[in-house]
Amino acid sequence: MNRRTFLKGTAASVVVLATAGVSEALAQGELAQLVREGNAMRPWFAPLTARQAHVSELVAAGMTNTEIARHLGISVRTTDAHVMSIFNKLNVHRRKQLAEWVARSRPS
Fold first, then answer.
1. Between 65-72 and 76-90, two packed helices, what is the crossing angle to 10 degrees?
2. Average pLDDT rounded to a whole number, residues 27-43
């Protein structure tokens, strides 16, 4: 069984190109292992960017957009844009939902 892993940043995508013996590989659990390895390389904050993850942690800590802007040295409008992008990516509508997502997703 031929296999290739294409790395994209810190996340890995696994593509399995099979020419023969697919059922044997599946029975041996090799495909499941490849998926586990790929998922282990994904950052906890996927699908967010690192900056959005930082902003989401500050939101989860209870900071307002103005406080976040001061803390990061960016404008309030930029903070507003980050928060809205985070809400859209995660399909959440309230800061509390975002805080819950951060608590669930972040490694302890």
1. 110
2. 62
Phi/psi-derived region of residue 49, left when phi > 0, alpha when psi is between -120 and 50, beta in every other case: beta
Residue 79: its pLDDT value, please?
97
State the number of CA atoms in the 13 A half-sphere of 70 facing the CB: 4
N-terminal to C-terminal alpha carbon distance within the chain? 37
Angle formed at CA 89 by CA 88 and CA 91, multiple of 5 degrees: 60
Here the tokens at position 106 are 């972040």
Can you give the pTM of this predicted structure? 0.61
Place of tokens 């803390």: 71
